[in-house]
Amino acid sequence: MYGNRCSFWKASLFALGLFGLLHSKQLTGVLDDCFCDIESIDVFNNFKIYPHIRKLMERDFFRYYKVNLKRPCPFWPDDGQCFIKDCHVEPCPESKVPVGIKSGNYNKYSQTSSSSSDVRECEQAHELGAVNNTLSNQSKEAFADWAHHDDAQDHFCGLDDEMSPDAEYVDLLLNPERYTGYKGPSAWRVWNSIYEENCFKPRSVYRPLNPLAPCRGDDDGEGFYTWLEGLCLEKRVFYRLISGLHSSINIHLCAEYLLDEGWGKSVWGPNLHEFRRRFDPAETKGEGTRRLKNLYFLYLIELRALTKVTPYFERSFINLYTGNTQEDSSTKDLLLQVLNETKSFPMHFDESSMFAGHKTESKTLKEEFRLHFKNISRIMDCVGCSKCRLWGTLQTQGLGTALRILFSEKEIKSLPENSPSKGFQLTRQEIVALLNGFARLSTSIKELHNFRTLLKDQR
User: Fold this and answer.
1) Do residues 429 and 175 lie in contact, with contact meaning Cβ atoms separated by under 8 Å?
2) C-alpha–C-alpha distance, residues 171 and 91, integer Å
3) pTM, whole model, 2 decimals?
4) What pLDDT sits at residue 231?
5) HEC states along 28-74?
6) 411-431, pLDDT tens digit by residue?
7) Burial (CB count <10 Å: 0-12, 13-18, 19+), residue 177
8) Do residues 408 and 261 touch, judged by C-beta distance below 8 A?
9) With 0-12 CB in 10 A as exposed, 13-18 as middle and 19+ as buried, what is 402?
10) What is the spatial distance between Cα 407 and Cα 351, in angstroms, rounded to a whole number?
């Protein structure tokens, strides 16, 4: 089945004149732990997904993200906030936020539910903050009864902090992810903590796992990763997800680098020197290629999650509510268009191979996997740059939501068509993080193609 569809993608590559460029020494071929090749992902993303996901992220439902950027670091004394002007996040006044999004915090079931009793009822149903649902009174009461259920055991990130007085709306379009100048001991400590304490590093491995850390001794770069091959699939996957996320963030910073402050408007654009420093095989002792392959691996994981969650959004009562009926309808149509495109990809990651061993051992391993990832989501509160913390928090929550989706297959398959389900639900924050997080990965792969072109022109 895959053979014919794969041939289609390869034929498309030749037709687009990209095949020779992509088949360079740096990055090509089949990814580890799955049966998909990089060339197919490039064509699929750059010509099928990226144009649509970019438009979707401009819609009101997805551009406003409520986040608490003032939580203290739970692991070490706070280094204080970065005072570089580009680290600053400009919160969005609530008067600028669409009324339907603000009311989502109280779980309005419909545009007309505005009485005080409705507000009290909706406050009780906090878990449905993502969507506007028109339900019968009986359904509302039933939903409110179980909405208080603590489902933290199913989450890979800390539960939303939207109701905190320190939480503020941020317009993501006005606070783009790009290079801020944030670096040094504070930034190093965050990434070292993520890699050293959470990526299942064997005690026998002495070099820091942080791929940008200085090498020790005579490590040849690629040889350092022999330890990874000895881990079980689940632990290898965990490391590759974190490495892929790190690579994606680094590509964003290289692609949107401050090139010139000047006297007028700042100029942002691609920095080839910075990109080569982080990913060129010659400058990274071969590790750059592995980092980029992990980006593609992460892309496949989140692509698979979007495909699996499609039935959740296909239900007619799910409405991405902002208060603007026409906007809401077109936003959902565009979302379904993106989700249907994800289903057309022929080489999805097969998550059924994970946690498939002995039942008790698999349960223990899955819980360890979840707790390690949840710990990483808390480390994001230690990032000193507000803009870096914003995007790190969003992308970590997006990946955590994707993992939750992948391991909720039975609950998603049993979703009722015309009412909420106690077994599986998504908050608005999770939906915004999931789609924005995937959009960041899609952008990374698109930018990677742009860097290849720039490097070719330079040569």
Assistant:
1) no
2) 7
3) 0.82
4) 83
5) CCECCCCCCEHHHHHHHHHHHHHHHHHHHCCCHHHHEEEECCCCCCC
6) 898 888 887 777 788 999 999
7) buried
8) no
9) buried
10) 8
Q: Nearest-CA neighbor of 67 among 410, 362, 319, 433?
A: 433
Decide if 41 contacts 303 (C-beta within 8 A): no
Q: What is the pLDDT of residues 366-397, one digit of tens each?
A: 888 889 899 999 999 999 999 999 999 999 99
Mean pLDDT of the region 160-187 = 86
Whole-angstrom distance, CA of residue 384 vs CA of residue 395: 17
pLDDT-derived band at 219, boundaries 50, 70, 90: low
Best CA proximity match to 38, nearest among 70, 2, 58, 13:
13
The residue with tokens 């406050």 is 123
Question: Distance between CA atoms of 309 and 409, rounded to whole angstroms?
Answer: 9
3-state secondary structure of 260: strand
* Structure token pair of residue 384: 């000193």
Distance CA 459, CA 456 (A): 5
Question: How many CB atoms are located within 10 Å of the residue 104 CB?
Answer: 28
Distance of CA 254 to the CA centre of its chain: 18
Q: Give the 3-state secondary structure percentages of the chain, helix then strand then coil, rounded to 5.
A: 60, 5, 40
CA distances from 306 to 231, 309, 402 (A): 27, 5, 7
The one-letter amino acid code at 247 reads S
Q: What pLDDT digit, counting tens, does each position of 62-101 carry?
A: 999 999 999 999 888 876 667 778 899 999 988 899 999 9
